[in-house]
Amino acid sequence: MSTDKPALRVGMVGYAFMGAMHSHAWRTAPRFFDLPLHPELAVLAGRDGRAVKAAAGKMGWADTEVDWRALVDRDDVDLIDICTPGDTHAEIAIAALEAGKHVLCEKPLANSVEEAERMAAAAQAAAAKGVFAMCGFSYRRTPALALARRLVGQGRIGTIRHIRAQYLQDWLSDETAPMTWRLDRSRSGSGALGDIGAHSIDAAQYVSGLRVTGVSGLLTTFVNERPLGGTLVGLGGQGASDGGTGTVTVDDAAVFSARFDSGAIGVFEATRFALGRKNSMRLEVNGSLGSLAFDFENMNSLEFYDGTQPAETSGFSTINVTEPVHPYTGNWWPAGHGLGYEHGFTHQVVDLVQAIADGVAPSPSFDEALGVQKVLHAIERSAANDSGWQHV
Ligand code: SOE
Predict the structure, then answer these.
(1) Where would I find the Gfo/Idh/MocA-like oxidoreductase N-terminal domain in this sequence (predicted)?
(2) Is the bond preceding residue 310 a cis peptide, omega within 30 degrees?
(3) Which residues pair with 63 in a beta bridge?
(4) What pLDDT is recorded for position 1?
(5) 3-state secondary structure of 247
(6) What spacing in Å lies between the alpha carbon of 310 and ligand 1's midpoint?
(7) Which residues pair with 390 in a beta bridge?
(8) What is the atom index within ligand 1 of the atom nearest the CA of 341?
(9) Pocket residues for ligand 1 (CB within 6 Å)?
(10) Mean pLDDT throughout 281-301?
């Protein structure tokens, strides 16, 4: 794509599911949005030289590195995009920020509060020099959730009293699904809680504008041993029957109740065992004047109950969030034609590039993501030995 805009040269670490998704976003964003800087897919890094070259060819990256440190050292890269498991986030992000590179880091920000605090401190020091960091809570950029936030901000549902959030997947329901890095605490930090519960926490806080101040939680692991090897299909699949087993060291499911700074209360559930629910990221908010409800499996809609309407004609209505007046949608297809999972990631790139060009800190900042990390940690403290209520 030829352009006379200044380049934003991107270096990315990791090229699996999230890497492919981010590659698509970097490539697509300037084709649909008028960005002030032009993202270039400059360098892709991964440890396996042959595999990273193949991935770079397929996804459109100009060059490769086999060591992320070499990537961070390069003068021809302006931004590092981290799409690796959580155990590597802190080291890569801090090195990149110290080298003067902007950073986009996948969620959850880190595997511990201590790592997240160091990352947030590095991001603050970098911001003073005009170098910015953002965490990839991509669901914020789903038009329906962005619209929900807008309606809350306009006072359309009044004072928020309840937040109900569920993130339901089923890719581990099959006990023969193979062991993966997502089930190994030393790599992923936690299980359903950090992988998908973190999205719910961020979305609840983003839409409501409130902050979680206390939690009480329960974590459980239903299947403790899983086959090593086998064939991955999507996130799950079929493990090998003859390769032995690995021990699952994370939670399979998490539930927790929460109090928010306004006095509102919330209930949350995150699981990979909700058979039949593939990616049902749901959020319902009840206020004094109305309610909003969202389900990612129906992501182009938002349910709205306007409690100010006469009882005779009141009821939940379905907003088709595909009109040009809705967040992000005007840059895509004609009304009613709808968007998909990948668009949240493209919008994430759009907002990040705009913030960098404007010289303002993008959101969610590492500070905001540290806040989510503290909520995750408080839930783990609560669940450990049934320790009850924990302040965040
Ligand atoms: C797996 O549970 C996963 O890919 C998450 O890691 C993503 O963040 C979520 O968007 C979809 O599910």
Answers:
(1) 8-126
(2) no
(3) 43
(4) 79
(5) strand
(6) 41
(7) 215
(8) 10
(9) 17, 169, 195-196, 235, 279
(10) 98
Percent of the chain with pLDDT over 90: 95
Structure tokens at 284: 């319902």
Distance 296 CA to ligand 1 centre (A): 12
Residue found under tokens 């959101």: 363
| β-bridge pairing 317-320 and 390-391 | unpaired
Instruction: Give the atom of ligand 1 at the shortest distance from the alpha carbon of 106.
Output: 8
The helix or strand, by DSSP H or E, that contains position 136, with its residue range, turns out to be strand 133-136
Q: Output the CA 3–ligand 1 centroid distance in Å.
A: 34
Helix or strand or coil: residue 288? coil
Tell me how far apart the terminal alpha carbons of the chain are, to the nearest angstrom: 47
What are the structure tokens assigned to 271, written together?
Answer: 């699981």
Distances in Å between the alpha carbon of 48 and those of 22, 65, 68, 181, 206? 19, 9, 12, 17, 38
Interface pTM, i.e. ipTM: 0.97
Q: What are the tokens at 109?
A: 């920000």
Q: Helices 49-59 and 17-32 sit at what angle, rounded to 10 degrees?
A: 30
Q: What pLDDT, on a 0 to 100 scale, did the predictor assign at position 144?
A: 98
Ligand 1 center–CA 5 separation, angstroms: 33
pLDDT, tens only, 338-385 = 999 999 999 999 999 999 999 999 999 999 999 999 999 999 999 998
In the chain, the domains with their CATH numbers are 7-138+363-368 (3.40.50.720), 144-298+300-339 (3.30.360.10)
Atom of ligand 1 nearest to the CA of 17: 4
Crossing angle of the two packed helices 113-127 and 89-98, in degrees rounded to 10 = 20
How far does the centroid of ligand 1 lie from the alpha carbon of residue 2, in Å?
34
| Closest by Cα among 315, 276, 180, 292 to 236 | 180
Per-residue tokens: 276: 């039949």
36: Cβ–Cβ under 8 A, 6 or more apart, which residues?
Answer: 5, 6, 353, 354, 357, 358
Two structure tokens written together for 305: 């109950």
Instruction: Match 């790599």 to its residue by tokens.
Output: 187
What number of CA atoms fall less than 13 Å from residue 106's CA on the CB side?
24
* pTM exceeds 0.95 for this model: yes
Give dist(CA 37, CA 361) in Å, integer.
16
**Sequential DSSP letters for 159-185:** SEEEEEEEEE--TT-STTSPP-GGG-H
